[in-house]
From TrEMBL:
Superkingdom: Bacteria
Keywords: Membrane, Transmembrane, Transmembrane helix
Name used for this protein in its record: Putative membrane-anchored protein
Membrane-spanning segments: 12-33, 39-56
Amino acid sequence: MRKYNFIRPLMLIVIALLVKSLITNLCMVFGMAQAQAENIGFISMLIAAIIVYSRIARKRRK
């Protein structure tokens, strides 16, 4: 049995939260309402998580 790599899930969580906060702050700087900025930040967090997970899974398969 291979050793479990605990860095991958942590990296996924950190990247998703970082993208969410960055996009939310960027939207608020450009004058968007807070609720709308948080919604766009959440959507971008989901997209970033899917992209990072697919890259991790692709590397693991090879």
